[in-house]
Write a structure and sequence with these properties.
globular; alpha/beta; about 25% strand; Rossmann fold; 10 helices
């Protein structure tokens, strides 16, 4: 297996085949529990330049196609491409419309012609890419001069409550790993794209109990996919320990789950 470790990333990211299979299985349940995804994507859309009028846009990591449909309505005279590594997601999205083309593809090796898009939009997808520098190189390649690449991703600090609770139980890898904000900043600055904005903001969801959080992660296809994760079923004693540890984070609104979201808008220079 290819080494998927990334400088600055603690440990390694999941195998792409596992990511594709997990999200394909989650295609029919994804939209019912996608509160975070909707909020983050809407925030990313709001950060796009107001004067942007792309002839062709790419929804990278398009999932069930929700934001493909939003992009189609936002830019009604444009042409859209929805691309995802999970074929099951595209099968679910295609009948609902939004994009003209639905393509199974890898963000690190886009099956698109150079300078073929004016907007590359990617919400909560590129955190699964081990070689983010390659994602940026591909973005630079497929964008026309003057085009925009906007992405939202997750960085270190995401689900820290769950991570710390598991650490108190058995110290094993139970929570997906993510890059540091500093790595996103460095890679974007060295990408050849102009950084218009890049920041991290926390987004906190609340649950009545731990089961609500773990059920949602599974329904999203975003449960633990890391190498080194424990195999087999989680024992009753460990789950009781996890629930007890997580209760230490409880607030008046419920049990918090914090997502550290990176928002970035990049521009391909005309010259």
């Amino acid at each position: 297996m290819t080494d998927l470790s990334t400088p600055g990333l603690p440990g390694s990211l999941p195998d792409k085949r596992q990511v594709a299979a997990s999200f394909s299985r989650a295609a029919t349940s994804y939209d019912s529990v996608a509160e975070l995804q909707r909020a983050v994507g809407a925030e990313l859309l709001a950060r796009l330049p107001q004067d942007l009028q792309p002839e062709r846009w790419l929804d990278l990591g398009s999932g069930t196609g929700y934001f493909s449909r939003v992009l189609a309505s936002t830019y009604p005279s444009s042409h859209g491409v929805a691309l995802d590594i999970a074929e099951g997601m595209l099968r679910h999205a295609r009948p609902q419309g939004g994009a003209e083309h639905y393509i199974v593809g890898d963000a690190e090796r886009l099956p698109l012609q150079s300078q073929s898009c004016q907007l590359l939009f990617s919400s909560l997808a590129v955190q699964w890419c081990a070689d983010f520098a390659a994602v940026l190189r591909e973005g630079l390649r497929v964008l026309q001069p003057g085009g925009v690449m906007a992405f939202a991703s997750l960085c270190v600090g995401t689900l820290y409550e769950l991570r710390e609770s598991w650490q108190a139980v058995d110290g094993m890898v139970h929570v997906n790993r993510f890059r540091r904000l500093e790595d996103y900043q460095r890679l974007c600055e060295n990408s050849g794209l102009q950084v218009l904005s890049l920041e991290s903001r926390p987004h906190v969801l609340y649950y009545p109990d731990l089961r609500g959080l773990t059920h949602e992660l599974k329904a999203l296809g975003a449960h633990n996919l890391n190498p080194g994760r424990p195999g087999g079923l989680t024992g009753r004693a460990r789950m009781m320990g996890l629930r007890q540890a997580y209760e230490g984070f409880r607030q008046s609104q419920g049990l918090p789950a914090t997502y550290q979201v990176v928002y970035a808008v990049l521009h391909k220079p005309i010259a």
